[in-house]
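Quick entry, no commentary yet.
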Amino acid sequence: MNKLRETEASSAAEKDTLSNKLSRLQLQLDGAQTKLKESERLADDLQRTNADLSRQLERWQTLEGKEEEAANVERKQRVALERELRALKDKMAEEAETAREETERLQSKNQKLKASLEEWKVRTFATIFLTPADHSEATFYILRAGSR
């Protein structure tokens, strides 16, 4: 009976020890489950944050692409306008040169017409007012007077 009591006491002590271990293990399990839930919640938060950041990055890249596209369109427009401006300047220079040449031609023609008019005046004066003998001398004096 003594042995039975010893075994019973030993079993009771072992039961208490195991019961304490079970309680500690249960507490550790609860703590681990709490940490697991917290880690899962944190992982979900990180995944949402990552998804948000990915969407933001896509928006920025799209915006950057649109800005580059707009810059390319503006660059192409500027180049086209510069070409058009260059062509207009060239055309204006050509037209100015043509106008200058035409002015020179008309001035030369004007000088010839003035000279012809003076010659006609001399001949008309000589024909009307002078005798044929005086023509050459009068022409000389009229031409000389007109050139002054």
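second:
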Amino acid sequence: MFNKAICRGITPILVLTSLVLNAQGAQTLVGGESRAAKLWLKPWGPGQNVQHQHVQRARVFKVPQKDLRDEALSLLEVQSAVPLTSLQAAHFLGGTAPSGNEVVNRSIADAGAESRIPGNPSVDASVTYASTLIGRLNPYLVRAVAANPGNFVFVVGFCGNDLCVFGGSLGEYNFAREPLVVYLERQPVDVWIDARSAL
């Protein structure tokens, strides 16, 4: 079971970020959005469970090359999350991909580095949780949308059995589909996708 302190920590960040970016960028939401990216957007509503089980950044990878991105996009035409073999993950990441346990070790190292930041109470819980993932992570190809592909970051987390993927950007709206390779401990039932940009 994921530590409640982390859930309480990540939920306000996601909610406040979404509210701030929504307020700043709502007037340009329709602006430069592509039809294909718009079809991928599937925001979670206010009545849905927003208690996120955070997926550490060390477990999320962008598909780097255009030809690989095009291939990944074609695999994601029907499904929002597609399980990958180790060889497929390596292919989409340009030739090499970490094992699930290597990703766990990176997550633990990242959390350990954060422990040197004063006033960060959820770090011990993050390390403990990451340690429980040894031998359990597998790569998935996952849909995401960037509001501005030139300047964006993704926040990924489980909402119950569903995966929530939020793309935060800076600058004008120019929506684009972004395939991600994400190491997950279970197959998500559904994937909820949102993207916002702050001008």
